[in-house]
Amino acid sequence: MLPAIVKLCCGISYQHFRSMTGLQQRAVAAIGQEINLMQRGSQITLPNWASHVQWIKANSHTGKPENEGTISTPMTLREEELVYVNQGKEALKKALEILQDKDGWKREILEESGDVVLSKTLPGTGKVFRLEAVLDATPEELYDDLFVKVEEMNQWNPDVKQIKILKHIGQDTMVTHEVSAETAGNLVGQRDFVSVRHCCKQKSCIYLAGAATHLEAFPPQKGFVRAQDGPMCIILQPLGEEKKKCQLTWLLNMDLKGWLPKSIVNQVLPQAQADFTKHLRKRLSARLVPLQH
């Protein structure tokens, strides 16, 4: 696709096309997008002339150009990339619909820290779980740990063996492969997940959504049961005037597959949520120690 776009941009150099500002801008934006994608895949080395071109970027949250005076429309994504973005948005929509329904939630776990895990049964879906916790961090700090640095999660969460980003779609959507760690006694067995992860920010809240997806180049792996995330969501919200505290709400909707009895699954998942916040608190505490000296 890149050679065709370059020819289009070269054609703009003719006097007849120079007044077609929109065409110029779209061509430059398209080349910028194409080069960025190809760079990430290590497919090309940029020529010298590329350093003199100012690529046009769109704001990842608003979809609008960062420089309003430069271009009137944001860069477009490839059709296959839009599929993942739409999956992420749909997962967020469905997850929020579940969370907004306050009826029918029953308590599963109540920790000394005040963390609580609730559950409810949805027709056609089964049990979903909702974690509520208050953490000593800002939404932006947690966003950094849970989304930006998601590949580092195994460093502080022993329940995760590995998370690898398979595909980036802009700054707000990615496809990941996650492998769970082996458990004591290996009662559940290791699972792996291929999921789309999507984030968006509205005012002071940050939303991290996810759902199972399919990547042709990454079929089920030998030795693992390919589990599936249903529409799930983490909401990070400032706690009133407490600038360094954050309310975390996590909807977990997961199908572990395999031959596991539902009774075991319904014990394992809420406990995994409770353990997750313990590990996250340890990470946050360890980060604060150097600042106190």
From TrEMBL:
Entry-linked Pfam families: START (PF01852)
Key words of the record: Lipid transport, Lipid-binding, Mitochondrion, Steroidogenesis, Transport
Reaction(s) this enzyme catalyzes, per UniProt: cholesterol(in) = cholesterol(out)
Stored PROSITE patterns: START
Subcellular location, record wording: Mitochondrion
One GO location term (cellular component): mitochondrion
Gene Ontology MF terms in the entry: cholesterol binding; cholesterol transfer activity
Pathway: Steroid metabolism; cholesterol metabolism
SUPFAM superfamilies in UniProt: Bet v1-like
Gene Ontology biological-process annotations: cholesterol metabolic process; steroid biosynthetic process
START domain segment(s): 76-289
InterPro entries, alphabetized: StAR, StAR-like, START-like_dom_sf, START_lipid-bd_dom
Chief location bin: mitochondrion
Oligomer status and interactors: May interact with TSPO.
Name of the protein in its database record: START domain-containing protein 1
Organism field: Lepisosteus oculatus
